[in-house]
Design a protein that fits this description.
The complex is a heterodimer of chains A (109) and B (114). Chain A is 0% helix and 50% strand. Chain A is built from no helices and 10 strands. Chain A has strands at 9-13, 18-23, 33-38, 45-50, 53-56, 61-64, 70-75, 84-91, 97-99, 103-108. In chain A, the strands form 2 sheets. In chain A, strands 1, 3, 4, 8, 9 and 10 form a 6-stranded mixed β-sheet that branches. A 4-stranded antiparallel β-sheet of chain A has the order 2-7-6-5, with no helix packed on it. The radius of gyration of chain A is 13 Å and the shape is globular. By secondary structure, chain B is mostly beta strands. Chain B is built from no helices and 11 strands. In chain B, the strands form 2 sheets. In chain B, strands 2, 4, 5, 6, 9, 10 and 11 form a 7-stranded mixed β-sheet that branches. A 4-stranded antiparallel β-sheet of chain B has the order 1-3-8-7, with no helix packed on it. In chain B, strand 5 and strand 6 (54-57) form a beta hairpin. Chain B is globular. The termini of chain B are far apart. Classes of the chains: A mainly beta (109), B mainly beta (114). The interface between A and B is medium-sized, with 24 and 29 residues.
Chain lengths: 109, 114
Amino acid sequence: LAKTTQPISMDSYEGQEVNITCSHNNIATNDYITWYQQFPSQGPRFIIQGYKTKVTNEVASLFIPADRKSSTLSLPRVSLSDTAVYYCLSQAAGNKLTFGGGTRVLVKP
Amino acid sequence: NAGVTQTPKFQVLKTGQSMTLQCAQDMNHEYMSWYRQDPGMGLRLIHYSVGAGITDQGEVPNGYNVSRSTTEDFPLRLLSAAPSQTSVYFCASSPDRGGSYEQYFGPGTRLTVT
């Protein structure tokens, strides 16, 4: 059963880069790695997805090493509004999309 | 597009009552799922569906039933509510692109069981 492991929390300051690493040792060959952001009292929101190497969009970058057993979400120059919980998602057996515990990111002024 | 809609937004039940949480999406997504999120915790998968007529259990299926008669709708039924089912319930949908899933979440239903 695929399982993800993330740090429970991280603190940062405005303008800094935040890197969150997720471990997914049992990721299957066809699985993608997906990251979500969740604000209090809201449903999670898709941030970025990748299969291997590096993916970048207007919000974040995702780095995936060749063995794909981990991935790192990079948030450049965070602001106070980036304070949220960030989830790394992998697939369990079949199509079960299982969330890990999430990383609480607190951005301080 | 309305995206993923959930009703009701809030619900209070007494122990032993049953009810159905509604979820609908208008994006023609094959994949739909239900999660629960307890206070301060992550999301746990209850049930999911890869298409109309096909459902399967997630991590925490006990006490819940689902059906998927149409692509658009994926209701979640609580059979006999218990205080342990007090939680926020999120429905999500995603296109299935051969292993790539980008889930769109609804606003959630806050359920309290007394």
